[in-house]
Amino acid sequence: MIPDTDIDFQSLKTTGIKVNYLYVCERKLWLFDRGIQMESKSDKVLMGKLLGESSYPREDKREVLIDNLINIDIVGDDEIREVKYSNRMHHADRIQLLYYLYYLKHLGIEKRGVINYPKMRKREDIILTSEAEKEVESALIRVQEILRMDKPPQIQKKPYCTKCAYYEFCFVGEKT
Ligand code: SF4
């Protein structure tokens, strides 16, 4: 069943990575959207990709790209799965997978979500409850608000700034 919603999903839909970045850092989301895509060089992202490629070699349906917006690691009969390197950004990984479930529901497909952390030998089930749907909708509205800003949101120091691909960009002035 398509979610009963007041938002205009067609105008708000975006990529999974942008929904993820909203929960990581609003400034990072804005910089990424403006084409400053330094993250692709990140060793962690590369390692996550390698982990994803080596951890589930027998899956036959993998890396499904839908509408050029959401790129699901693994699609099974009843569930979709994302493979993550660590749970350091758990809150962001969770909203990204909820968004995927929400997106699929709009296409008339209802599944469960699972986040796999193969390095930690852990998995987490993610269910799109009606509360979670509201959270996704709030996130989509916030993503649009951020992307409409003329300037990037202010720097907000976070524990993981030093590991962020934009660290130099944000803090280069502070080191001198
Ligand atoms: S370095 Fe920190 S403030 Fe700058 S984009 Fe990354 S997480 Fe955000």
How would you describe this structure to a colleague?
42% of the residues lie in helices and 15% in strands. It has 176 residues and is an alpha+beta fold. The protein has one domain: Lambda Exonuclease, Chain A, CATH 3.90.320.10. The protein has a five-stranded mixed β-sheet with strand order 1-2-3-4-5. A hairpin with a 3-residue loop joins strand 2 (70-75) and strand 3. Helix 2 (16-24) runs antiparallel to helix 5. It starts with 8 loop residues before the first helix and ends in a 5-residue tail after the last helix. The relative contact order is 0.20. The mean pLDDT is 87. The structure holds iron/sulfur cluster (SF4). Iron/sulfur cluster binds at residues 25, 27-28, 31, 155-156, 158, 161, 164, 166-167, 170.
